[in-house]
Amino acid sequence: MKLTTKGRYAVQALADIAAYGGASPVAAGEVALRQGISAGYLEQLLGRLRRAQMVESVRGVAGGYRLARPARDIRIADIVAAADEKIKTTACEGKSGGCLGASARCLTHDLWDELGRQIDIFLNAVTLEDVIERRVLGMASVNAPVKPVQQQQQKGYPGAAE
Questions:
Q1: At CA 130, angle to CA 4 and CA 67, rounded to 5?
Q2: H/E element holding 18?
Q3: What are the angstrom distances between the C-alpha of 51 and each of 45, 55, 123?
Q4: All residues at 6 or more sequence positions from 25 whose CB lies less than 8 Å from its CB, including other chains
Q5: Whole-angstrom distance, CA of residue 114 vs CA of residue 101
Q6: Mean pLDDT of the chain
Q7: What average pLDDT does this structure show over 23-32?
Q8: How far is CA 101 from the centre of its chain?
Q9: Which are the contacts of 61, defined by CB distance < 8 A and separation ≥ 6?
């Protein structure tokens, strides 16, 4: 199974923008720093996400990127696709017709092919909002939502100093 850094970084970048930006743009450099992504590589990914109308760029001193639509309307599968990423679970290439190079499929082909379908179903069911609110795999009742640092300092927020 293969999901390269391109797809993972695209999801991380949009989650960061959703969590830290709101209506305000977030500088790409801040996202890169928080997420440990090279600034140049991140700019390439943000360009793809902008063309897919998931983020919009704002020019100027206070510029950066913000979500082009609500996080609840952005599916993780769409982010991965916008990053030009395909999740491969089989070794089959192109139209070769098989995993073994000729036209024969390996014994476990159907297993890995079905896994790929299940991953696709899962990623299409999860929104960016689910990720930032930690509702993936029922974690909403266990973990507090991810909030920007300045909001974590507010009285009454779980984990804030009182």
A1: 75
A2: helix 5-20
A3: 10, 8, 20
A4: 57, 58, 62, 63, 64, 65, 66
A5: 20
A6: 81
A7: 93
A8: 33
A9: none
Q: Residues 25, 56, 42, 71: is their CA dihedral positive or negative?
A: positive
More confident residue, 135 or 129: 129
State the pLDDT at residue 149: 46
Instruction: Tell me the C-alpha distance between 75 and 11, whole Å.
Output: 10
Residues 80, 49: contact at Cβ < 8 Å? no
Q: Provide the token pair at 138.
A: 């029922």
Taking the C-alpha atoms of residue 92 and residue 90, their distance in angstroms, rounded to an integer, is: 6
**Domains observed in the chain:** 5-151 (1.10.10.10)
Q: Which pLDDT tens digit goes with each residue over 79-94?
A: 999 997 777 777 665 5
**Amino acid letter for position 86:** K
Q: What tokens were used for 154?
A: 């507010």
| Distance between CA atoms of residues 119 and 111, nearest Å | 12
Q: Is the dihedral of CA 8, 28, 42, 45 positive or negative?
A: positive
